[in-house]
Amino acid sequence: MLDQTQLKHNAAQAAIQYIQPLLGPDVVLGVGTGSTVDLFIDALEAHKALFRGAASSSERSAVRLRARGITVFDLNEVSAMPVYVDGADEIDAQLNMIKGGGGALTREKIVASVAGQFVCIVDESKLVAGLGRFPLPVEVIPMAREAVARRLTELGGRPVLRDGFVTDNGCQILDVAGLRIPDPADLEARVNNIPGVVCCGLFALDGADVALISTQDGVRRIDRQPA
Ligand SMILES: O=C[C@H](O)[C@H](O)[C@H](O)COP(=O)(O)O
Questions:
Q1: ipTM score of the complex?
Q2: Which of 35, 178, 183, 192 would disulfide-bridge 158, Cβ 3.0–4.6 Å?
Q3: DSSP state of 146
Q4: Where does substrate bind (predicted)?
C-alpha cells in the first residue's frame, strides 16, 4: 500500500516523463506550487541541462528551483512556454479544479495562462465527482475583505479569513466553505467579478489539459475532452 507521499512522488515522475519530449535549450517551463510540485521540482533537477529554466507561481517554488540549480525567470521575460505543471486541491473528471490551498492561486492562474498546456499532477484523493468539498480559496485586496465576504455569503458560502496569511501579492485569502458548484465556470466568473476579488481558486474557464492521477494501481491519465 503506497502512502500519500509515494503517490505524489509517482505523479511527479509521470510529469517528468510527460514533459521530456517538450524540453529543449530555449524552453522555459511553468512550475506551480505545493507539496506535489515540490517533488516534481526535485525530480526536475536531473534534467536541468535539457531546458533553459522555469517561471514559477510562487516565491516558495522559486526558492526550491534555485536551490536545485534551475534558473528562474521573471514572467515578464517569458513570451511562451510549452507546459505548466501544478497540483490541485480537487479535480473532477472534466479537469475543472479547485486550487489555492497553498495560497498561490493568482500567480498559478497567471503563469498557466502563458503556457500551451496545463498538466495537473495529483494523488487519487484529489479526484472528486463534484467540486466543493474543499473550501474555495479567494484572494482579496485587504480593504475589500468584509465587502467581498458579504457577497460570498450571499452566494451561499461561509467565508473564513485565512488568519495570519499574506499572499505573494500582499493580499489575503478567504476560504469559502459551503458553496454549491453545479457549474464551476459560472461560479468562477461570478466570484472573479466581485469588486475586491483578485482571483478565486476555481480553474474551470481554463481548466487542466491533462491530469496525471497517481493511484495504488499506477498513474492514470485523463485528457480534457473538446467542448
Ligand atoms: O496554492 C497552492 C496550489 O494550488 C497547490 O497546487 C494545491 O494546494 C495542491 O497542493 P498539494 O500538492 O500540496 O496538495
A1: 0.97
A2: 178
A3: H
A4: 33-36, 86-89, 99-102, 126
Residues 92-96: what's their mean pLDDT?
98
Exposed / middle / buried, residue 94 (Cβ in 10 Å: 0-12, 13-18, 19+): middle
Beta strands in 20-141 (DSSP E): 28-31, 53-56, 81-86, 90-91, 97-98, 115-123, 136-140
User: What is the residue type of 102?
Assistant: G
| Residue 105 near ligand 1, beta carbon < 6 Å | yes
pTM assigned to the model:
0.97
Residues designated as active site: 108
- CB of 99 shorter than 6 A to ligand 1: yes
Domain at 136-200: CATH code: 3.30.70.260
- Helix count and strand count (H, E) for the chain: 6, 13
The Cα–Cα gap between 149 and 174 comes to 8
Query: Which of ligand 1's atoms lies nearest the C-alpha of 108?
Result: 4
Helical (H) or strand (E) element with 210: strand 210-215
4-128+205-223 domain in CATH 2.60.40.10? no
**Which residues, at least 6 apart from 3, have a Cβ–Cβ distance to it below 8 Å?**
none
